[in-house]
Amino acid sequence: MRGALAIVVVCAAICITPVLCGGIVVTALAVTIAGTLPGRTIAACATPVQARAGAAVAATIDAWIARRMPGSPLEELGPAMVAGASGSGLDPRLLAAIALQETSLGTAGGGPAVYNPFGLGPGLAFPSWGAGIGLAVRTLAAMHAAGASTIAEIAVHWAPVGAANDPSGLNANWVGGVSAAYAALGGNPAGPVFGRAATSTCGPITGARAT
User: Fold this and answer.
1) Residues 6+ apart with CB under 8 A from 100
2) Global pTM value
């Protein structure tokens, strides 16, 4: 019951936050509540096909990051993104796309020092890349539970246009930037980012780096 209540609370907080506070990037409260959602115990693979699909997505993410931003601290974290999204229904390629838009794949701002490449917060620091990935996934999953399934729908909560903390209007570029990165990763930026078959995986894939 406590888990179900937490989901209801975080959905409500995220739904009303853009009106009250200007979006996910200024709502440490909403993100912190999302962090209270129970963690997942990732089960063994249902089929070898799912394992191969997860490994292929991880390899796609790693190769794209290496091409797009050589030297990024997120290099080789594709398996960790796949493992973190496992069980949520989230396409892990969206994590990489958001990280590019928010922190240039962990190379801009304070992201590398606090393991926060997704712009969660403000002021949130994590003990590891895996912890940052985990909260990003839970936050996106809470948005999905509140009805957001596409990049444009997620942007309403994550980076709302006209937010008080965005006086330069940079949020207006969020959908376009994330969509372009997601398309470069092989995704359909106009379609749902939850429910893809390739997101079912085995938990931490051999070689995953989450620290």
Assistant:
1) 68, 69, 177, 178, 181
2) 0.76
